[in-house]
Design goal:
single chain; alpha+beta; two-stranded antiparallel sheet; 4 helices; 7 strands
């Protein structure tokens, strides 16, 4: 499946070199795509994501996702509490965009909670692209080879791959599902930058993606 593009506002100069080692090596392309996601589940019932057990006491928005579309996040536990918290909030950021797309609303609170700066601008534009076309998606997306790097300035880089081969665009007006065959374009490499807020939330600030990246091919 080829999903809609998330506009990439800025290239991460300091993190771009990490793309050479993430998922096996390669480059980045700031004009390609990112995809939304959901917490892994085997239930047909709506999915509700929960706060990380290591998160601060700040009240987080509850992200509720409808059935029919789910994401599987691998590499959730590194053995390092800080890195696990970063991976959790990266996952929640992706979930927040999915919630908005699948609910057909730009007014869900989680998008602004888990992203800021250029990433927030890009997220809103991305979601609006789905809503304007009356598109949604169904199936399963897998996120794998997730790696966290703690930067010297206190921020973090999360680099990972996604497999969209079992996820498909759906036209909400007609109900038609676009069963696009699996190709190299079904796999995407992401490089995100996160910064920790005063409340202890790791918010996504910037993102680079490379659709069809060799590093993520099976």
């Amino acid at each position: 499946m080829t999903r809609s593009s998330l506009p990439i506002a800025v290239a991460l100069a300091a993190a771009a070199g990490l793309l050479l080692t993430a998922c096996g090596g390669g480059g980045s392309d700031s004009s390609d795509k990112i995809q939304p996601s959901q917490t892994a589940t085997t239930s047909a019932a709506p999915v509700t994501t929960t706060p990380s057990p290591t998160a601060s006491s700040v009240q987080r928005p509850v992200i509720t996702l409808p059935s029919g579309a789910k994401n599987v996040f691998e590499d959730q536990h590194t053995g390092d509490a800080q890195k696990d918290a970063i991976l959790h909030d990266n996952e929640q950021w992706v979930n927040s965009m999915d919630e908005a797309i699948l609910k057909g609303s730009l007014n869900t609170p989680a998008v602004g909670f888990y992203s800021t700066d250029k990433a927030l601008e890009s997220s809103i534009t991305y979601i609006k692209g789905y809503l304007d076309k009356s598109d949604t998606w169904v199936g399963t997306t897998r996120f794998f080879d997730r790696k966290v790097t703690l930067m010297n300035d206190g921020t973090a880089s999360v680099i990972y791959c996604s497999d969209e081969s079992k996820a498909f665009l759906k036209d909400k007006k007609t109900g038609k599902i676009d069963n696009t065959p699996t190709t190299a374009e079904s796999y995407v490499l992401y490089n995100t930058r996160l910064a920790k807020s005063k409340q202890g939330i790791w918010r996504t600030t910037q993102v680079i993606s490379d659709r069809g990246a060799k590093q993520c091919q099976p």
